[in-house]
């Protein structure tokens, strides 16, 4: 598609100008953008309303798509936070002088152009721009058609702020929502240095399997919490409810509660707050028996093999009963996605074993998995949660959005044969 190639060429050219912008000016642009988000909230909400009208309110993606005044305030605050963070660029990561006198430094630098493919989450447009801009990279956004009106308004707003600061507008561009545009982006090795998918399992797998551009996988979260035989009942009740119901459509929401068989008698208490949010539970036989008569009949169902390893993104949770810590670890190893896992226990040795053995980006002890978030970790806005091991892992903030290069200083040395 000529239209997409033209956009990518503009972004690539504009990315060169970012290397000449001082951090003070980057921060000024971001502070102006935060102000603009608040000043233009009516236009943003109006555009978002058009997108919402086209989506079924019962869809799990509806909540992800929806903007409110409170969410816009939070977005503006995240942008300000990014502006206040130290620059990730130009940091000396390693330095040494060789025996021959060569002086070596490994220095953090921008990637260049970062493409992000995402679904119905317009806040991602702000997050990606602010993080990429602060870390010296241009960004190409490929949002879903569900958020097209919102994303267009967001890019219009960002372009206006960039223009007012005499910064090239094409340091961020929005691609068409077509499938062809996605294919062009994934093949654009000449123009794009890194591609990051943010969304469900199918989107991430598609990008991984079809991209010629290097990919960092993010987002897919099949998240478990293990209530151990030594878990505190009241603490568990609160953690489980928060992990499941805070926002069901996000990747850090709880999908499966694993419970030690010796604590099945406490399961009605552990699930007592969930019924207030009408959480549907798919329980295995032992858990079903423990909850029967203590949980709304219409919300309690028998688990099937499909109940485990599923990212529900809805008011739905599975329960699996195990007889040991090792069995809980085996369940996570089989069904987890490497995103976030949790153990609730008062026994430190079991918690340490769990944290050492679980293969995930974030492993919690007595705290809800809902904390897996760049802002919550003090990173400012995040560009995603990386579930892979090569490169960044977990919440990806400013530091994770840089690469490095070697700077070598000599004084006429030559390499011997």
Q: Strands of the largest sheet, in order across it?
A: 10-9-11-8-7-12-13
Structural class: alpha/beta
Instruction: Specify the overall morphology.
Output: globular
The radius of gyration computed from the alpha-carbon positions, rounded to a whole number of angstroms, is 24 Å
Largest sheet, if any?
A: 7 strands, parallel
From the N-terminal CA to the C-terminal CA, the straight-line distance is: 50 Å
State the order of secondary-structure elements, H for helix, E for strand. HHHHHEEEHEHEHEHEHEHEHEEHEHEEEE
Query: pLDDT below 50 for ≥5 consecutive residues: which ranges?
Result: none
Proportion of residues in β-strands: 15-25%
Mean pLDDT: 93
Strand count: 16
Helix content bin:
25-40%
Tally of individual helices: 14
Walk me through this protein's architecture:
Helix 2 (23-39) runs antiparallel to helix 5 (69-84), helix 3 (41-53) runs antiparallel to helix 7 (148-164) and helix 5 runs parallel beside helix 6 (123-134). Helix 7 links the parallel strand 4 (138-142) and strand 5 (172-174). 39% of the residues lie in helices and 18% in strands. With 417 residues, it is α/β, with parallel strands linked by helices. The model has no long low-confidence stretch (mean pLDDT 93).
